[in-house]
Amino acid sequence: MGSEMATVDDVAKAAGVSISTVSYALSGKRAISQETRERVLKAAAELNYQPHASARMLAANRSHILAVTAPLHADTDSTVHMQFAMEVTKEAHSLDYDTLLLVHDDTMQSMRRAAATALADGVIVLDVDAEDPRADLARSLDYPVVFIGIPHDARGLICVDMDFEEAARMSVDRLADAGHTSIGMISHPRLTVQRGSNFPLRFRDAFIARCTERGLEHSVAYPLEHSARESVDELLTALPNMTALVLNTSSDVAADASSALAAHDLTIPHDVSVIAAGAAYPTHRFPVPLDRIPLDAEASCTAAVDLLVAAIDRGEREARTVLIPPEYQDFGSVRAVAVGIEKATQH
Amino acid sequence: MGSEMATVDDVAKAAGVSISTVSYALSGKRAISQETRERVLKAAAELNYQPHASARMLAANRSHILAVTAPLHADTDSTVHMQFAMEVTKEAHSLDYDTLLLVHDDTMQSMRRAAATALADGVIVLDVDAEDPRADLARSLDYPVVFIGIPHDARGLICVDMDFEEAARMSVDRLADAGHTSIGMISHPRLTVQRGSNFPLRFRDAFIARCTERGLEHSVAYPLEHSARESVDELLTALPNMTALVLNTSSDVAADASSALAAHDLTIPHDVSVIAAGAAYPTHRFPVPLDRIPLDAEASCTAAVDLLVAAIDRGEREARTVLIPPEYQDFGSVRAVAVGIEKATQH
DNA sequence: CAGCATCGTCGAAGCGCTTCGATGACGATG
DNA sequence: CATCGTCATCGAAGCGCTTCGACGATGCTG
What we know:
Two copies of one chain form a homodimer.
Chain A: H1 8-15, H2 19-27, H3 34-46, H4 53-60, E1 65-69, H5 78-94, E2 98-102, H6 107-116, E3 122-125, H7 133-141, E4 145-148, E5 158-162, H8 164-177, E6 182-186, H9 190-195, H10 198-213, E7 217-221, H11 229-238, E8 244-247, H12 251-262, E9 273-279, E10 291-294, H13 297-314, E11 320-324, H14 339-346
Parallel strand pairs in A: 1-2, 1-3, 3-4, 4-5, 5-11, 6-7, 6-8, 8-9, 9-10
Helix pairs in contact in A: 1-2, 1-3, 2-3, 5-13, 6-7, 8-10, 11-12
The structure holds a DNA duplex (30 and 30 nucleotides).
């Protein structure tokens, strides 16, 4: 076990062939006779040969490492990013890549370093802002980069993200189809939105557009911190007849929604139907479980890593944006409103 | 920016010195005249020279990469591990190391590979079980490994962990000093404990020992899933006079504690004083904020990385266990019991 | 002033691997 | 039977860096 690490030379000697033959037999990059290959494989196995990573990197000019950058905003929910980092790692592993974690204040510099020193073969960018400076960096770098999230100016970039617009439409449609005509929405905490995180805006705009399209009363609130209370108050002022609530917000705020509604003597789903859309956190264990359109880390990360590896291994670098279709999970927090009765009471 | 990457040769030519002089000037491993060094530094800066990572690794036989292994137990709270992974990464960065994320079912193999291919210079092991097979692996490997968590057989290993025993004692003392005489404890979910995670046992045993020592009534419950309800029921059956509760459990269960107590018409801290000990999650935003002895990822990770780097760079490989002293955070969930009155009512 | 450290620099030998071009053996071709 | 293409293998040239030993120059020492 501890015995000195075996090298290609050792394998070559043991198999009675040259070094290059060993290399070709193991990589399959040139034809090698069945017989010789088997001899090499056997020798390699017996010596427990493992190619020296840096030697391989240097010679092949490829590290088989992907870098994952996650900036550390104070307001950012780092557990979400880490979930993404994990999914990236899993998918990368299945494609024979390792992942390097780059979590520094200065993501730009990390990215530049990873590229300049050839430490990593490519980069996955997490937590993308609308005006993310890493977009320009990526364009200038001539180096494979895939964004999970979509910056405002996505020209020339490869991006993957959940289809937040579709998720918003799906939420509105679900509620409208159930007869709701006055829908509130709680967005992400003000700070996140102000910083210019991209997806809250996309979701909100699509929400408003769809409500307008379907002729629904609507209003959007931005919570201040970790509580939903003020937002619910706001919404009920703006929409006294509100019977439905769409949450596209942080875990804290979503968890607080039912008690915030309870403060107004409203219960889910009897008085208010609720959907948590783009939720990275589970909602089925909330005191009142909520219907959910999950932010599916696995789907996004798988797609992103596949694209990145394609860019590295097969040179597929054309810009493109891949949207992951949302999926609706029903936990019973949306209730149909009897339209006739509703109308009757209003008249 | 995009221009072809500069190499030592380029720098050497630009500075009018030999390659080795450049290397020594940059590394400082041999004396170089002030004047020459400045010339080299200037040339390097102008060419934006960044040493090629794999070349450096190969020549120096050191990758400047640390591996972080986090096995993926289904029952495990991966966000906690990821928090640790992040802290490790931050500290590693400050010591000029990068971190590779190894999150596979087969942690053993990952570790072996990292060592055998010299991909990483050392490994940080997270989520350590009492009977963790990685302990034996580490002993057999002659390779720097640091455990965050303490396996049952820690001989020959370098381990870092929070001092759970001390945290348990601290909790008991706090409550006992406040006059409580009947203390319940909710441990980690049954599955975690059964799997042999190490720290729940250490905490529980120290809790029991201290209670016994101070002559306090006590009982321990193991929740089944994510709810505290059954555990609270159990404890109140075992300890009808219970006035204090120590939580050393998962975030879900801890968050549920106040409502589980409320079901018995008990409020915190009026009827029951509560301490969350060894909590990786924040408790001050709970409906009722809880006193907390945090599981301080930063402290453990900093210590662990420092030890690992010492083992790598300075060969300090002697076995040792470093315990991080716990720290008490008061959020008002512990209330003093007037002993005289208590006694009076009992008589 | 011969003898000896010390300092600053250079050249060259690798680190372990990949990969290109060359070579020989062999059967197929005209 | 000379020629050519294929197939399997080998040798050698790097990849970009670190590091060891050597060497001239300089400054001390006795």
